[in-house]
Design brief:
By secondary structure, the chain is mainly beta. About 10% of the residues lie in helices and about 45% in strands. It contains 4 helices and 21 strands. The chain has helices at about 85-90, 105-110, 150-160, 255-270, and strands at about 5-10, 15, 20-25, 35-40, 50-55, 55-70, 75-85, 125, 160-165, 170-175, 180-190, 200-205, 210-220, 225-235, 240-250, 270-275, 280, 285, 290-295, 300-315, 320-325. Strands 1, 2, 3, 4, 5, 6, 7, 11, 12, 16, 19, 20 and 21 form a 13-stranded mixed beta sheet that branches. Strands 8-10-9 form a 3-stranded mixed beta sheet. Strands 14-13-15 form a 3-stranded mixed beta sheet. β5 (about 50-55) and β6 (about 55-70) form a beta hairpin. α2 packs antiparallel against α3 (about 150-160).
Length: about 325
């Protein structure tokens, strides 16, 4: 049986024995987070770069933010480490220069990360043609207080790209995955002994949805004002419930705005949460931005769903587990 070996490495230490840990990755909150507790002291300090491996595969590249040493008569020595992925550097660094910015994603990223430690232009990956699109001026305008991450994310989203961080610490621009082959599976049958999970739930809601979305507004050019209107329909909604939203050109093309709103509503309409034993399935570590085939008749989910959040945990009470959140794909 696979032991799902976990390893924390920094420049002066390699740690593979833990009392507890939590390693979180989220497609839409790419800072991620990690925490470890062990009963030995190591030469690990705040500000150290680290890599976390599961089964010899990198699952998070991060920065140590907090260390804590504790000694008690009953519990003995304890050493704990907490931190976040390298995306934390982008989300906690404010833009300090407010002049004109480049109108391509590579130019924008290179300029904004130039003075940020540990990150350089080589850490950015451009898929699905992301390096070629030109961005309109209004999507690269900066206000005081904007973080580097916010500016880059806004520019990427305006062109229909998802901006996220890979386990290896690369910042990726790519089209959101709407469909794909499943690399994982979660199955549950009438016989409880055949369940692939420890606990699972499927939440469905129509509260935030609509049967159709109409976007209306105006776009001002150098010479005149153009009025725009577009409509997208949600055939899955059970009754008529239209949404009319005001639009301005700073929000991106009207059609993309409508489609993004629809994709977001569909994703919010169903959310799957599962807890499974261990950290891998058939030799593959559970990974965000991968599809999972779910056949869960009791909970009413039978389709391929995108893994959007994954947390590896260890505790003495429960052992090694993985918490997963899944939803339909196609959302920025």
């Amino acid at each position: 049986m696979n032991r799902d070996e976990v390893l924390l490495t920094v420049k002066n230490a390699r740690v593979d024995k833990f009392i507890s840990y939590s390693i979180e990755a989220d497609l839409f909150s790419p800072e991620g987070s990690f925490s470890f507790e062990c009963d030995s002291q190591y030469d690990i300090n705040e500000g150290d770069l680290c890599e976390i491996y599961v089964n010899r595969v990198v699952v998070l590249t991060g920065i140590v933010l907090t260390t804590r040493r504790t000694l008690s008569k009953q519990g003995g020595p304890r050493f704990s480490v907490e931190g976040k992925s390298t995306a934390w550097l982008l989300s906690n660094t404010s833009v300090t220069k407010f002049g004109a910015l480049p109108k391509t994603l590579p130019g924008l990223a290179e300029k904004l990360v130039r003075d940020i430690p540990f990150i350089s232009k080589k850490d950015f990956v451009y898929n699905s043609g992301a390096s070629k699109d030109r961005i309109k001026r209004q999507f690269v305008e900066v206000s005081p207080g904007d973080s580097v991450f916010d500016v880059i994310k806004k520019a990427a989203n305006s062109q229909g790209y998802l901006f996220w961080v890979s386990p290896e610490g690369q910042f990726v621009f790519d089209k959101p995955l709407a469909r794909g082959s499943a690399n994982f599976h979660i199955h549950a049958f009438e016989d409880v002994s055949e369940m692939d999970y420890i606990e699972g739930s499927v939440t469905k809601s129509i509260e935030s949805g609509h049967s159709e979305i109409r976007i209306v507004g105006e776009s001002q050019s150098d010479n005149d004002i153009k009025y725009t209107k577009c409509t997208v329909k949600n055939s899955d909604y059970p009754f008529k419930m239209p949404l009319v939203a005001n639009w301005n050109e700073n929000e991106g093309p009207a059609q993309k705005t409508a489609e993004l709103q629809l994709a977001t509503e569909k994703a919010q309409a169903i959310q799957l949460e599962y807890t499974v034993a261990g950290h891998s399935q058939k030799g593959n570590n559970w990974t965000i931005n991968q599809f999972c085939d779910v056949q869960d008749d009791f909970n009413g989910a039978n389709d391929n769903y995108l893994i959007v959040s994954r947390t590896f945990t260890l505790s003495r009470q429960e052992g090694k587990r993985t918490r997963l959140t899944l939803q339909p794909g196609g959302v920025i």
